[in-house]
Amino acid sequence: MKKSFATVAVLATxxxxxxxxxxxxxxxxxxxxxxxxxxxxxxxxxxxxxxxxNAEAAQAAADSLVAVSMIHQTALWPEGTDADSIEGTxxxxxxxxxxxxxxxxxxxxxxxxxxxQAAAGQGQDQIGxxxxxxxxxxxGCHDTYRAPQ
Amino acid sequence: xxxxxxxLVAAAVIGVAVGLWxxxxxxxxxxxxxxxxxxVAAGEKVFxxxxxxxxxxxPGAEDKLIxxxxxxxxxxFGTFYAPNISPDPSAGIGDWKVIDLANAVMKGVSPKxxxxxxxxxxxxxxxxxxxxxxxxFAYLQSLPADATPSKPHDVGFPxxxxxSLGGWKLLFFSDDYVMDVxxxxxxxxxxxxxxxxxxxxxxxxxALGGLDTSRWMAGAPNPSGKGTIPAxxxxxxxxxxxxxxxxxxxxxxxxxxxxGGHMAEVVDNFAHLSAEDRAAVAAYxxxxxxxxxxxxxxxxx
Lengths: 149, 301
Prior knowledge:
The structure holds 2 protein chains of 2 kinds. Chain A is an all-alpha fold. Chain A has a single domain (23-145), classed as Cytochrome c/b562 (Four Helix Bundle (Hemerythrin (Met), subunit A), Up-down Bundle), CATH 1.20.120.10. Chain A has helices at 2-19, 24-47, 55-69, 94-97, 99-119, 127-145. In chain A, helix 3 (55-69) packs antiparallel against helix 5 (99-119). The N and C termini of chain A lie far apart (40 Å). Chain B is mostly helical. Chain B folds into 2 domains: 28-147 and 154-176; 199-291, no CATH class. Chain B is built from 13 helices and 5 strands. In chain B, the strands form 2 sheets. A 3-stranded antiparallel β-sheet of chain B has the order 1-2-3, with no helix packed on it. Chain B is globular. At the A-B interface, helix 2 and helix 6 of A face strand 5, helix 11 and helix 12 of B.
């Protein structure tokens, strides 16, 4: 009795794991957003004065943001990987219905990242305004295309 | 028998009369606004803090100051559509007087005396000062007009009977503040409770769509679909006051995730307020008490 209960429990766990398996493309796109967040954190900490300004570290973080902006996005967003179709994503189906708008907004992030790249090494006071611009580009997409938690 | 019938009829007539009296639209006394004059620049601040454009701008439009409406707000009672509040005289509010706006935002009543649905957050705006409403009126009238007609709400019986909203107001309409605060938190409370109407999404609702003030800002299901609107109460929110203020300015969480959903529009507004106002809102949020235990079983909005 105890044994069969344990078997069922193990099977159930395996089943849940299998179901919760997030497609690689979704992991990859979430990974790129995590890289963004990590580097924005470095820049934001300096902008707020919580971390001492370091031109080299600021430049590296800004360069990384630009690098992320250059990743081709097509492979990361296959059809059927929206929040209505699978677990583990907050990407709304509206993304696939308005792909031109999404691409334009991704481009706006790239522009904002480039501006940060040009400014980040020039001094602590250069970071704040560019953080605002990058934040604006994040919002621009997230207000319509990402579900709340 | 006949006598009983007579009594019953009389009781029914009285019942209906009392019902009509109780659900009749209440209005602002016009004298309150007779001598006030509105200031456009001050009104812009009221407009931004109150988030008018966030709901009344045309969905997807670049210019968020054309307030032709059309944004959809799904709920358990049907789908509401934000109306045209641009200064067009027929499609919008171009022919309104300041008292009409006062009745709309402070009483939830249209110029023709109809109740508005509480999707329009007049239960927050009713705490605004008269001067702020007069300033807001001046600013709204300075915006571009647009002739797009308002889209009718898609609301089924019995919620489509506007008069029944008088009953809703009897139960839930209140211009008293929810939280008692010391003097140094009053500005933050005014911004949160009277203008930015944060509770409309961050507080769970009861079965009749009234805010459950015992669970003030304790988080709630997302009225527009997937996910939940996060709690701001200290049992859940671990951010510092500085984190809250920076989020309202930049849209970045302490982990440098970015704001999303309708809150992105709210951050757009707060980013245009002063640093003092953002700090005041953050101080209010950090002063929120932990909510009472959830006894409702479900907070189905």
